[in-house]
Amino acid sequence: MSQQRIPAWITVGVIPLANVALAAFAAGLVFWYLDINPFDALGTMAYGAFGSSYGWGYTLYYMTSYIFTGLAVAVAFQCGMFNIGGEGQAYIGALGVGLVCLALGGHVPFIILLPISIVAAAVFGALWALIPAWLQATRGSHIVITTIMFNFIAAALMNYILINFLKPDGTMSVESAVFHESAWIPKMHDVLAVFGISLDRSPLNLSIFWSLFVAWAVWVFLWRTRWGYEIRTVGSNATGAQYGGIGIPRVVILTMLVAGGLAGFMALNVVQGEAHQIKLNLVNQMGFTGIAVALMGRNHPIGIVLASLLFGFLTQGGSELQFEYSIDARIVVVLQGLVILFSGALQNMMKHPIERLYLTLANRSGSDQAAAEA
Amino acid sequence: MTAQTDSAADLALELRGIDKSFGAVRANKHIDLKVEKGTIHGIVGENGAGKSTLMSIIYGFYQADKGDIFVDGQKLQIKDSKTAISAGIGMVHQHFMLIQNFTAIENVVLGAESGNLIDDSLKKARAEMEHLAKEYGLEVPLDTPVEELAVGYQQRIEILKALYRGAKILILDEPTGVLTPQETEHLFKVLQSLKEQGTTVILITHKLREIMAATDNVSVMRQGEMVAHVRTQDTSREQLAELMVGRKVLLRVEKGASTVGDVKLSMDHVSLTDHMGVKRLKDVSLNVRAGEIVGIAGVSGNGQSELLEALAGIRAINEGEIDLNGHKVTADHRLSPSEVRKVGVGHIPEDRHRMGLINAFPAYEAFVLGYHRSPEYNGKIQMKQKSMIDDCAEKMERWDVRPQDPYLKTANFSGGNQQKLVIAREVEQNPDVLLIGQPTRGVDIGAIESIHKRILDMRAAGKAILLVSVELDEIRSLADRILVMFDGIIVGEVPADKADERTLGLMMANIVPEEVKALQAEETA
């Protein structure tokens, strides 16, 4: 009478793929409505995102950012919290990275500067998560509300700091001075050129390796350390955690510090790796997209890397599409929305039929087997 | 299928070949059942044997995949509970379905109103209920909101609801779980007089003693199948237990002698007020010595949970003093749950799903809950995966947890095996004091036997054990001394050999019988 189990390849493979296929179908209907051949559109997107080292560069550059912001949501989610504050945490993380690069760029070698800017990204991002975390842990203020509010506060604060302190005199646009070149994280095309591999110029930089390493480290942290054990315990059964002697407020604060730090890392890619200056609005919704990435990636680092690649493809392929067919830039948002709708909100629509189908097939072959054995 | 045999005419309810599957799970396999008119028919089986599914099919909550239902010899398609009610089937659920701030009479009328004005219905219902009360001993205060009534009364309202709707077949699902022995006895009297007036009663329970006391016939279910139909007078508890489990079961474990040592756990005038401002413990004093089991009896919700949680460090006390294996706890000086573990106190919580285990975790992870910071499971940064898994596998073998798979998700073990996991975890840390709450709740009868044996083994090993349970049989067969709780106070103490059902039942309702008073006077003198 025991309940049969659904194998992992169904849960993390077949079901997400079916959801993406449905989203693609719905997107096809949108293109059809816009008088664009859906297959041509898909082809344009695929070519734009993967057809050249230029496309690949952009896709992977976006992927890098999404991995960081996606992990920031996933870690909090494992503790039962919904961190909507990736946007603000990444923005403040950018301040940390920017300050380090502005202060030390040209004065210390890159190899010394990089660890400092990595720490600064994490510390600034974590500090921005600390107040909502503390309010949640001690006062029960809901983390969703406080982190949303902190996104607005971060935006206002950054406006103020950029205009009053960081904007060089005599410039019009609201951005900091460009960092000294020695502070820049090397671009992938420059690095590979040394080895004789030539790539098109793209924003892709060495942060991508850091993002993959961090994804692995998050997996170790959550599933192989006692701190991760406590985080997951609080997330799946708070009463049980209390029984087990786990201090819930302490775990909530720790989790949010980690989440904020992860979001802060996103600035390494965007600020130190690409823009080389602190710009207004540099996070550009990537913090929010991190929520969709985490949702799609089932709050698991492997899933998040794959979902980040998908969203990187949507972002890059979508902008090609916009260029090619001169349609509204928000088509990218529509495509992302469809993916979120089908793989997040409607995930159970495909889940139950697929699981039922699997069980029926498995039972049929199971009883065949039993009959053969008998 | 119109031709009925002669005997069928006397059947109130007949099921033929009922099949029901949920996904891959076959909850009911080809069930046949004949319930004679004007009898009390018991249905027993372990958790998950398919009793509830079968009743839900009869009451129209589920549709059978296959099979026929006959009511009074007529084949009936029961597609919803409305059909069931109009066919004269009434159901009293384990968890009452009453509107708390309605009165008894309003609850009875709800959903069975006639006419446009509620007053007419209420008037009609009042007359009818007064009649039913007299005839069957179903007196309830008609005009008091339900939330102010004791559970025994609430259950009577559920029965009245069914009778008011013209039930000729009354199904009761685990009706005695929340009742004191006296209330249970009254319920059985009510059922008896219902039967005498021609109502058919189907009683679902896992308590074999009640089956023997109250029923005429009994059907036994095991793993979705009907394994036996017998006349109650021709069977015995032992035989029923064997049928339920499929092997011989010891219903009562032999309690050996044990040497009683020093006091290991004591509470001195302890009071506790919860976050709602309700006083849950009132001036509670008790002590437990090494090598003895002290049982706490009482109807669920009278402060037993708070007592356990206060001792385990989960709740703070407001007044008084606790001594845990030589460590003092007061309102100002708390010990956290992990500190309580460190001073040698193990805690097997009342509710393993809510507290004792993490259902989403694999067994080996749930198995270290509370001890996850101990050096044996931890390296510098990473936890020692291998030692956690090996340790869990080893203890699963020693405690006969099945399936013996440390990777299996905790939720996928049966109740008895989950409980063994919790007990193994706490006992293997070798504590001096054990706090045990409801050790066999939702546990199969076969596993109960082995859990009881383990608890007695710990007593023989010189542990001081505090046992909270709502099952009187369990307390009586395990405990050396029994304390009875009512509304946060300790009503009194009885030695196990003097604790008969009646005495405990009275004390559970806050009445101390003379014999007990005399005993207590003797002790203080």
From TrEMBL, chain A:
One of its GO terms (cellular component) is plasma membrane. It is a multi-pass membrane protein. Keywords: Cell membrane, Membrane, Transmembrane, Transmembrane helix. Its main location: membrane. The keyword Disulfide bond does not apply. It is found in: Cell inner membrane. It holds the Pfam family BPD_transp_2. GO terms for molecular function: transmembrane transporter activity. The chain crosses the membrane at residues 12-34, 54-77, 89-106, 112-131, 143-163, 204-223, 251-271, 291-315, 327-346. This is ABC transporter permease. It comes from Saccharospirillum salsuginis.
UniProtKB/TrEMBL annotation, chain B:
This is Heme ABC transporter ATP-binding protein. InterPro entries: AAA+_ATPase (IPR003593), ABC_carbohydrate_import_ATPase (IPR050107), ABC_transporter-like_ATP-bd (IPR003439), ABC_transporter-like_CS (IPR017871), P-loop_NTPase (IPR027417). Residues 13-248, 265-512 form the ABC transporter domain. It is found in: Cell membrane. Gene3D superfamilies: P-loop containing nucleotide triphosphate hydrolases (3.40.50.300). Its main location: membrane. One of its GO terms (molecular function) is ATP binding. The lineage of its organism: Bacteria, Pseudomonadati, Pseudomonadota, Gammaproteobacteria, Oceanospirillales. Transmembrane segments: none annotated. GO terms for cellular component: plasma membrane. Keywords: ATP-binding, Cell membrane, Membrane, Nucleotide-binding, Repeat, Sugar transport, Translocase, Transport. It is a peripheral membrane protein.
